[in-house]
Design goal:
Belongs to the aromatic-ring hydroxylase family. TetX subfamily. Pfam families: FAD_binding_3. The chain is α/β, with parallel strands linked by helices. It folds into two domains: 5-73 and 99-168 and 279-356, FAD/NAD(P)-binding domain (3-Layer(bba) Sandwich); 171-277, D-Amino Acid Oxidase, Chain A, domain 2 (2-Layer Sandwich), CATH 3.30.9.30. 34% of the residues lie in helices and 23% in strands. Strands 5-4-13-14-15-12-16 form a seven-stranded mixed β-sheet, sandwiched between helices. Strands 7-2-1-11-17 form a five-stranded parallel β-sheet, with helices on one face. Strand 13 (200-205) and strand 14 form a beta hairpin. The longest helix is centred in the last third of the chain and has 31 residues, at 328-358. It is globular, with a radius of gyration of 21 Å. The two termini are 40 Å apart. It binds flavin-adenine dinucleotide. Flavin-adenine dinucleotide (FAD) is lined by residues 8-14, 31-34, 46, 124-125, 154-156, 160, 177, 223, 273, 294-296, 302, 304-308, 310.
Length: 376
């Protein structure tokens, strides 16, 4: 393989692929739409699992760097009811196998591990075209283009590479999250900080719920879930943060004030995150010279696996390419065979998790899942 592997998207999946290729001495170029590593806040914590995210980082030779990022104690879990009563609690004894790190820091160690110039910032792909014999032309928004004999779409939910392989498009799952942040909460919002505890908080009810995480420095990061059509959210003016937060909080009338404060006392404007998914089991027939990884391949309802899977895909694809240096098609076929299976499995688990969280039997279904260890 004489041309560098061409990766679209510098998310966790694309960067892990680039790094694993580099570890095996294979050059790659990553084209990223954002203009710089700091163009967008990479908010949020990710729990990195010992069965997918961590092996990927090991393959990338970055496990020690990863360990230095771990926020101790954040694997604690609490489930409360709407009155703030504790239904389930598990402390973080360090043995859970899914330590939490900040997404931005994880992305930074991957970026720092690549040779200078690997990532080409400000390259938004506007079109892709098959040229035959496994070659593809990639065109960017500024009108420039490149031709490659190995193209990898790591460009997330709305992948521009995916149409080369499949007609599938993500569909709205009928639910959205509204994201808020409370800063310095131990001092400024002690009741909410206490309710969240040391790690993750879940307050689920049929069709809705509040999920919050303690991040670094007393930051509480909350996802408020509501099962409503997109039109319902479109009627809310998110350019007026206080009014939008108040409208969302109205859906939680009568809930404990330390819980509703997670919605109304935000230090940043609430952000609407509509949730989409590809069909479970999304797959395609082999097309020479191109493949997908991460959300581009198997976007699913958020279930704590997406970033882990994207990194695992990147590592597996990198290893497959390295194992078949003169047989790219064999590498892609080998990678896709197992990727399709793990993507389908995780997507099905995501649907089940949303049933535990927001189905008719919430919150008890979630408590039962934690108690019976159906959720790691
Ligand atoms: C609300 C929410 C919460 C989540 N929480 C978790 C969690 O706790 N744990 C977890 O594991 N997962 C979580 N996920 C899922 C996780 O964020 C994704 O699965 C993961 O980021 C996928 O990684 P990726 O590399 O495939 O894609 P992305 O992270 O989406 O990266 C794609 C990259 O491609 C770039 N790009 C896009 N289009 C173009 C283009 N046309 N040209 C060039 N570049 C382009 C983007 O700018 C981006 O940098 C959550 C998702 C949501 C929506």
């Amino acid at each position: 393989m004489h041309t560098p592997v061409t990766i679209i998207g510098a998310g966790l999946g694309g960067l892990t692929l680039a790094r694993v290729l580099h570890v095996h001495g294979i050059p790659s170029t990553v084209y990223e739409a954002e203009t710089s590593p700091t163009a967008r806040a990479q908010g949020g914590m990710l729990d990195i699992h010992d069965y997918n995210g961590q092996p990927a980082l090991r393959a990338a030779g970055l496990i020690e760097e990863f360990r230095s990022l771990i926020l101790e104690g954040r694997q604690a879990i609490r489930v409360l009811d709407r009155d703030g009563a504790v239904l389930f609690e598990r402390a973080d004894d360090g043995t859970d196998g899914r330590p939490e790190v900040l997404r931005g820091e994880l992305r930074r160690i991957l970026l720092d591990s690549l040779p200078a110039g690997t990532v080409r910032w400000g390259h938004k792909v506007s079109g892709v075209r098959a040229l035959g014999e496994g070659r593809h032309e990639v065109t960017f928004a500024d009108g420039t283009s490149v031709v490659t004999s190995l193209l990898v779409g790591a460009d997330g939910a709305w992948s521009r590479v995916r149409p080369l392989l499949s007609d599938a498009t993500p569909q709205y799952i009928g639910r959205s999250f509204v994201e808020t942040f409370l800063l310095d909460a131990d001092t400024r919002h002690p009741a909410s900080a206490k309710a969240v505890g040391g790690g993750s908080l879940f307050v689920p009810e049929p069709g809705k719920g509040i999920q919050a995480h303690r991040e670094s420095g007393g930051t509480l990061h909350t996802y408020v879930a509501l099962t409503e059509p997109q039109d319902w959210f479109a009627a809310i003016d998110f350019t007026d943060p206080a009014a939008a937060a108040a409208r969302i909080a109205r859906e939680f009338d009568g809930w404990a004030p330390e819980l509703t404060a997670l919605i109304t006392a935000g230090d940043t404007a609430p952000v609407l995150r509509p949730l989409h998914a590809l069909p479970i089991g999304h797959r395609w027939d082999r097309v020479p010279g191109v493949t997908l990884l991460g959300d581009a391949a198997h976007l699913s309802a958020p279930n704590g696996e997406g970033a882990n899977l994207a990194m695992y895909d990147g590592a597996e694809l990198g290893k497959a390419i390295a194992a078949h240096p003169d047989a790219v098609e064999a590498a892609l076929a080998e990678y896709e065979q197992t990727m399709f299976l793990r993507g389908a499995e995780a997507a099905a688990e995501g649907t089940q998790l949303h049933e535990f969280l927001f189905g008719d039997h919430a919150p008890h279904s979630l408590v039962a899942a934690f108690t019976e260890d159906d959720l790691s």
